[in-house]
UniProtKB/TrEMBL annotation:
<feature type="domain" description="Cytochrome c">
    <location>
        <begin position="228"/>
        <end position="314"/>
    </location>
</feature>
<protein>
    <submittedName>
        <fullName>Cytochrome c-binding protein</fullName>
    </submittedName>
</protein>
<feature type="signal peptide">
    <location>
        <begin position="1"/>
        <end position="19"/>
    </location>
</feature>
<keyword id="KW-0732">Signal</keyword>
<keyword id="KW-0249">Electron transport</keyword>
<feature type="domain" description="Cytochrome c">
    <location>
        <begin position="78"/>
        <end position="164"/>
    </location>
</feature>
<dbReference type="InterPro" id="IPR036909">
    <property type="entry name" value="Cyt_c-like_dom_sf"/>
</dbReference>
<dbReference type="InterPro" id="IPR050597">
    <property type="entry name" value="Cytochrome_c_Oxidase_Subunit"/>
</dbReference>
<dbReference type="InterPro" id="IPR009056">
    <property type="entry name" value="Cyt_c-like_dom"/>
</dbReference>
<keyword id="KW-0813">Transport</keyword>
<keyword id="KW-0479">Metal-binding</keyword>
<dbReference type="Pfam" id="PF00034">
    <property type="entry name" value="Cytochrom_C"/>
</dbReference>
<keyword id="KW-0408">Iron</keyword>
<keyword id="KW-0349">Heme</keyword>
Length: 315
């Protein structure tokens, strides 16, 4: 049923010629109802290496960014810390207080200011959409982009661009992976200890799910990738079938260039979604032609390899 749903999304939102390619479910995880038992709203949350505490209601409040480690960054702008009701959610709620994000959305730390501003404009105009449009990380961005002021965009962009990204993803090549379930638009490990073949997937999970639920910006992740992916990805990044190479725009070490974002150390689930969204024509911004030329001939294995290699690099 889920695969059929994904195919219908492609038919509805992509060019017919491209609709036969279905976005991979593992990269576009949903948040099934009752997928996890929630604690009482009055429960108190703690995370490692922080003396602070928040209630569960606070860490689930779209207009509040839990700031567990305020020493890690400059003071949060109001729009990052609390947003502006009713429709501008706190940027730091989804992307965390100092911008590392998670597998379900984008890391903003260290992105060029002008790039962040342009992405907000693209969400607002409809130039940036998703291959699976009902995922909350995208629908929330569309809501925020239509309501946010230019001044708040500028404040958030200045703040996030000033931050230094840090490596928080460990990439492991393997044939077997922990069994997972979909939770909060990302994957998480079951507590059974069972494993299964990785197949043609990347399995990216928080190392400590409870810390990630608490929106701890220091949460780390493990990305399990098929064996040989990193080496293959390195070759593709440097020479993609004689089309534009990734390095020609994103830099030799994939750390970005001017207003072009870095790929090094980013979530491989996120990178995979962006490649598919460009390939399927759902991102129609100024980079569309170059990106579609670069990715049009990539198959599923190629995309996995590029995402794996990029995630393995130091940001």
């Amino acid at each position: 049923m889920k695969q059929l749903t994904f195919l219908l999304y492609s038919l509805l939102y992509c060019d017919v010629a491209l609709a036969i390619e279905t976005p991979p479910q593992w990269a576009y995880a949903q948040n099934p109802p009752n997928s996890i038992v929630q604690p009482n709203d009055n429960s108190i949350r703690h995370v490692p290496n922080s003396d602070l505490s928040y209630t569960f209601a606070q860490v689930k409040d779209l207009f509040f960014a839990p700031d567990w480690h305020p020493q890690d960054h400059a003071p949060l702008p109001d729009v990052v810390a609390q947003g502006r009701k009713p429709d501008v959610y706190a940027c730091g709620f989804c992307h965390r207080a100092d911008g590392p994000g998670g597998p379900e959305n984008a890391s903003l730390a260290g992105l060029p200011k002008n790039y962040i501003v342009q992405q907000m404009a693209d969400f607002k105009s409809g130039a940036r959409k998703s291959s699976v449009p009902d995922r909350a990380p995208v629908t929330n961005m569309l809501i925020v982009a239509k309501a946010i002021s230019d001044a708040d965009i500028e404040a958030a962009a200045v703040y996030f661009s000033s931050l230094k990204p840090r490596k928080n993803i460990r990439v492991i090549e393997t044939n077997q992976v922990p069994k997972t379930f979909e939770r909060g638009w990302h994957l998480a490990k079951t507590d059974t200890g069972e494993t299964e073949p990785i197949g043609k997937r990347i399995i990216e999970v928080p190392d400590v799910l409870d810390d990630f639920i608490s929106r701890d910006s220091r949460t780390t992740f493990t990305a399990y990738v098929p064996k040989g992916s990193i080496k293959k990805g390195r070759k593709l990044v440097q020479n993609n079938n004689q089309n534009l190479s990734c390095t020609s725009c994103h830099g030799k070490e994939l750390r970005g260039d001017n207003n072009i974002p870095a790929l090094a150390g980013r979530s491989p689930s996120y990178i995979t979604r962006q490649i598919y969204d460009f390939k399927l024509g759902l991102r129609k911004n100024s980079a569309r032609q170059a990106m579609q030329l670069a990715v049009q001939n990539l198959n599923a294995d190629d995309i996995i390899a590029i995402a794996s290699y990029s995630a393995s690099l130091d940001p």
